Amino acid sequence: MSEVKEKIVSTVDAGTTREVVVRLRDLYKSFGDNKVLNGFNMVLHKGENLVVMGKSGSGKSVMIKCLVGLMSPDSGIVEVLGKNIVTMDQEDLDELRSDIGFLFQGSALYDSMTVRENLEFPMRRHKGRFKGVNDTLPLVREALENVGLAHTMDLMPEELSGGMKRRVALARAIILKPKLILYDEPTSGLDPITAKEIIGLMRSIQKKYGTSALIITHDVDCARVISERMVLLVDGINYAEGTYEELVAATDPKINAFFKK
Amino acid sequence: MRPNKDLGMAFTVQIIHKTKEFFIEIGDLSYFAIRFFKQAVRPPFEFKELLKQCYQVGNRSLLLVMATGFIIGLVLTLQTRPTLIEFGAVSWMPNMVGISIVREVGPVITALICSGRIASGFGAELGSMRVTEQIDAMEVSGTNPFKYLVVTRILAATLMLPLLVIFGDLIALFGSSLVEFTKGNVSFRLYFNTVFEALSYGDLVPATIKSFFFGFVIGLTGCYKGYNTGRGTAGVGIAANTAVVMASLLLFVVDFIAVFVSDIFYEL
Question: Which PANTHER family match (chain A) (predicted)?
């Protein structure tokens, strides 16, 4: 175990007073003989921006999918907003999901729907949250204005550029005003300028709504700008944890491999 | 001798492997069908999406079914005519064409055309949604994607196929009557009167019932292949392709069972 991990884990376990939003404990997940998660542990605090970095195929996406109930872990505890989602029934899970926004790697906008319909879609199952709001248009407009795309409401996803799609997907992720936003490779496949814009939007959204964010990425620049704390996922475990500066300064070759220019 | 023995062994292993794969596929498909029935009766019901899918399946396949039906009617009559003339039985033409189209040719041809159009469409659409994580996004937003995407599509195919078969049958009979009108001076009125006199409930009811099953099989296989697509764009193509092959094969199995059961009830 690296020095950095030893140091940071001790501060987490010592117990900060901040409320815990996500807690993953001893998470195991295999696909046949391929052990992807091998006892992964992680804690995300309220209002925190936590970046999880790992190589391609290291299990970052599997971890985030376990976190939102899209995959079941082989064993371990997945606690989100105080509830263990592994033992939760489908109805409660759907209810909990209204407090979680998810930005997918490829945006995952519904091809057959307009931008407005894409944003209205998450609301159809959570009407109870919007009592008194008959018209969804103001909410859609507000979400789109947050990402600077109010004019695209009636466009189809195919008419948008890659960066615009990502911004619309971000608007869809925040439409229910979630307490937690999960970002799966938010800047992958984007040019540096657009990636910078997306990072800026992520920060402004967190500032505006006070959300907690878990960001999965292998983009070091993204991690440097947005992270308050980082977890390095290596060989299925949380190999190292710390701030960006702490990890960059580490001497462990496995940690250094992430930050080599 | 040795290479032949090895070849024989390899062939046997291959056969066993393929047979095992086949039964696993049938098991998975059956589980998918059971899941459909469970989800179809549980609220909330996605009526709006069901109507949209009915429009997509019905309206967009109508022209293709009508064109195919018309050509089948023409060809069947043109090819049968010389033989019936030879036996002095040309006046039986409307009876023969009517019964064969309504009982068998109409439903089977329409179902095969629709399996190419609908099953591959469902396979490609759902496969593409799976690969681009749209199905995951739906699930994360609290919507049951199986109910929203699969149940509505299977129901739409099941409800629309009998209507398409009826349209296809009528157009095929019109094509046939056109040949009789031009070659045999048989009026349209006389032709259709003869056809409807020849048809009984024993012809219409089983054909309509089996059309529902054809629609169900087409919807089920298309959605099954699309929903379970492997990752990657190649998976989408494979899903669309295998959906058509599987649907076409199952249509003949269902047709055989339908004819067998009809025979018991109506003594065809």
Answer: PROTEIN TRIGALACTOSYLDIACYLGLYCEROL 3, CHLOROPLASTIC
